[in-house]
């Protein structure tokens, strides 16, 4: 590969220019020098027009389908920020056309569906990455490092809490209430993925009790209490709510990671990096000291931009991204098993949706 080929920006088509897609265009794509967004696609004509206007793009950069964009523009990769139901179909269309793919979370509602894209990408030798942006933040990264270094010794338990009040949307902004599994698909996937990342362990089984109070505007669960067993018998609790009256957490939630020799707490992904916080207490017994703040290194790119940079580098022959489609199957599996548990009322084995050999 020539130097030019390794240093020229990856030519990216961006499909799905709704609320979050426009936010990518404003905040996540521009900081990544390694990509050039060469076209935008949205199947909804008014949304496409609004995006064209907002981004100041000429007609020959705006398309109503991936097929039209691929016919008109020389592209190497596709960023998918359409709703979940369209993730795998769009990824497959892009992979079939020989393009690398970065797809928003949740990758898919089931492991079986996600696997179709994973297998196609591997057959074609293309990068397929899932944007689990909460990973690429200073607090979560530091918590992972501390656990891996054994700062608190062998882990005993993990607790994670996510509390928001998202119940006052004006008419017209209320689509969230009709989302399929607004807590487990839309939000807990982030926390399930962080749980795997911070502990370095995959989930073995899960029990999920969901609730949707009689006054809730949500069509499906507004909140859930979940117990996860991870490899090695480690147990985690997760409480998530869109209708919480308690003090609100940041998007990451509030985490307590406890071990034989101490405790790590962390929170993050607030509006600013100042809200990233990690605290550590080492010691046991009554004389143990207080939690002390852990200094967080100044990050380079964070969140979605960090993931997009990984895609570009992988396309140009660098290391694979941290969250490949295949590795993300373990987070999708925990989410899917939690949904199954909520329906069955039983503990569900994660292996039933993701046989161990699929990850190896
Ligand atoms: N990671 C995060 O922190 C985060 C935050 C918000 C949303 N998201 C994710 O981003 C995605 C999009 O969310 P949103 O709120 O912007 O949704 P949205 O419904 O506002 O926008 C999605 C857009 O995709 C377009 N679209 C759908 N199917 C298409 C297809 N086949 N071809 C072309 N265009 C198509 C729609 O017309 C729409 O304009 C979801 O997967 C959501 O989970 C992630």
TrEMBL record:
Gene3D superfamilies: Dihydrodipicolinate Reductase, domain 2, NAD(P)-binding Rossmann-like Domain. Residues 141-264 form the GFO/IDH/MocA-like oxidoreductase domain. Residues 12-131 form the Gfo/Idh/MocA-like oxidoreductase N-terminal domain. Pfam families: GFO_IDH_MocA (PF01408), GFO_IDH_MocA_C3 (PF22725). InterPro entries: Gfo/Idh/MocA-like_OxRdtase_N, Gfo/Idh/MocA_Oxidoreductases, GFO_IDH_MocA-like_dom, NAD(P)-bd_dom_sf. SUPFAM superfamilies: Glyceraldehyde-3-phosphate dehydrogenase-like, C-terminal domain, NAD(P)-binding Rossmann-fold domains. This is Gfo/Idh/MocA family oxidoreductase. It comes from Pseudokineococcus basanitobsidens.
